[in-house]
Amino acid sequence: MAFKRASWVIIFLAIFLVGDRVIASFLDTVVLSSKLRFSLLYSGGQEYEILVLGNSRGVNTFYAPAIQEATGKPTLNLSYNGMSADVAEALFLDYLDRNRKPQLVIIEITNLTHRSELLNDLKLYAHHSERLMGLLREANPETARWAKASHLFRFNSEMFLRALYYQTSSDQTWINRYQINRTLLNSAANGDSQKVLTFPENLAAMKRIVSLAQRLGISVRMVVGPYLPAYGKHLSNLGQWVDEVGKEIAVDIPVWDYSEAITDVSAFADRMHLNYEGSCALLKRLIRDGVFTAPPPQSLASSRKVFRDHGQND
Within 13 Å, how many C-alpha atoms sit on residue 165's CB side? Predict the structure, then answer.
């Protein structure tokens, strides 16, 4: 009897494992056929000339369709909500492994200021990337173990639903399309003073991104996107923070500081993010200043660590 029960357990486990792998393999094919930004990355063969890295501020600061239309250069925004610099590094390296190198990489560098909230969702792609799996093991060992044990477990995430949603349309049109409300405006104006902090692992990752890009002949733009003016005033060390990052990372390239560049509150969706209109308004400044020009304008000497736009002539 015990032998019979053991046999049934073995048969059940075998069926489970085979089913787990077969169904997961099918779903993975579906995911890689999606037009979601990470699916494009891991399906390979992309030939974008401009690549954008960042967190949610990167998503809403750089509207890829408008950049592509203005510059004539195919543009992919790989930014995503909650993406820290160490995760951006893993994705950048994976992109280079699978796709033609871009001419220009733009990095919204405020992803230095938080640890990643994205890794659990990125388990969907972790079997394609030992780099992502390594970060997942460090951040959440239990999730990493389950992702290894059950391939179907990887699909238990919002990212999988997004991959399904973007099967037939590009996710590059994803941007805030609403204006900040009066409650948030009042809250921002009356907020407490805050300090901008950098996590060491993010700073190290950013240095490696910039160094590798330069070695490969890829132009780099490190950018700080706009903050709602009333909120930005409460970031007590923001200017100093930008200066320090410029000195720490940028050996021969400046930080382009647009944190104060947009003063019209209707251009914001909340305290930290532009909306579509704000992104388009900023794009005019980016083009004017030569952010998309490679090599950078002669007016930006290599000794100049920070270029600042203080919002004149909105």
Answer: 10
CATH superfamily of 2-225+236-308: SGNH hydrolase (3.40.50.1110)
For residue 81, CA distances in Å to 8, 45, 111 come to 45, 25, 10
Q: What is the pLDDT of residues 179-201, one digit of tens each?
A: 999 999 999 988 889 999 999 99
pLDDT at 314 over 60: no
Rounded Cα–Cα distance for residues 254 and 296 (Å): 10
Query: What count of other Cβ atoms lies within 10 Å of the Cβ of residue 226?
Result: 29
* Bridge partners, residue 268, by sequence: 274
Stated pTM of the model: 0.90
- Domain map of the chain by residue range? 2-225+236-308
Q: What is the spatial distance between Cα 247 and Cα 229, in angstroms, rounded to a whole number? A: 25
Q: How far is residue 229's CA from residue 238's CA, in Å, rounded to a whole number? A: 12
